[in-house]
Amino acid sequence: MDSILNQTNDRYEILIIDGLSKDETSKIINSYNDPKIKIISEADKGIYDAMNKGIALAKGQWLMFLGSDDQLADDKVLSDIVDVIKDRNEKVIYGNVILKGNTGWGTDGQLYDGEFSIEKLLKKNIAHQALFYHRSVFQECGNYNQLYKICADYDLNLRVAAKFKMHYVDRKIAVFNAGGASTSSRDLKFEQDFSNNIIKYFFKDLYKDTFKGLERKISRYAKLQLRQFKFLSAAYLLLISLYFKIRRHIE
């Protein structure tokens, strides 16, 4: 809480989605007596149900998600990200997190994890504490899939990456504390669905890449036919190559 309230940019709201915790969460939050803070304390169906509630209740145009034991890296995080947003047209901005404690995918003190290509994202996730989403992203890609109890944020990022350019900022965004659900459990349902989901989310790109690959192969073979003075065959192959090129651009 303090890491947010100490930000130099104060144009934000804080939504705390509490699943009827039996500790002193409500008491601590209410002690701040700050109009920027709103707490919703009710039964939920898990982490991503709570995050989906936050999406529905948020009034701002940009959203980020912190776990209860995470914190922003310093007091200028929001100011710096606002500057990036003003200069860019992308609707997804992300940076790095600092790991506090050891996880199954990183070690204490590690800076996680630089810029992500699609290939890198297929191997591991961007920490959700490092991400800022424009709310239109959820309108187009949907919310967190609650079938995935641990990796719904990974699933969301794959869907988002298939539709939006994600802009990387070389900056520490948050401190991620190890020991939560994402570092202590596996999401077998997510693992089971992973391959099919990749095909579904990236089908259009895979489809275009297939046409592109065929177009190049046929074009190379056509040139070989030309060198062998097989003009009719070359012309036929070049027409087919042109067909695939046109289809790729149309699709």
Structural write-up:
It is a single chain. The chain has helices at residues 2-5, 25-32, 47-57, 77-87, 118-121, 135-141, 152-163, 181-184, 188-201, 203-227, 231-250, and strands spanning 14-18, 37-41, 62-63, 71-72, 92-100, 111-112, 131-134, 166-177. It is of the alpha/beta class. The strands form 2 sheets. Strands 3, 4, 5, 6, 7 and 8 form a 6-stranded mixed beta sheet that branches. Strand 1, helix 2 and strand 2 form a beta-alpha-beta unit. The longest helix is centred in the C-terminal third of the chain and has 25 residues, at 203-227. The radius of gyration is 23 Å and the shape is elongated.
The best one-word shape is elongated
Unreliable stretches (pLDDT < 50, length at least 5) are: none
Mean pLDDT: 87
Q: How much helix is in the residues? A: 40-55%
Number of helices: 11
Distance between the termini: 47 Å
Number of strands: 8
Element string (H = helix, E = strand): HEHEHEEHEEHEHHEHHHH
Provide the β-strand percentage band: 15-25%
What's the story with the biggest beta sheet?
A: 6 strands, mixed
| Overall SS class | alpha/beta
Q: What is the quaternary state of this protein?
A: single chain
**Whole-number radius of gyration?**
23 Å
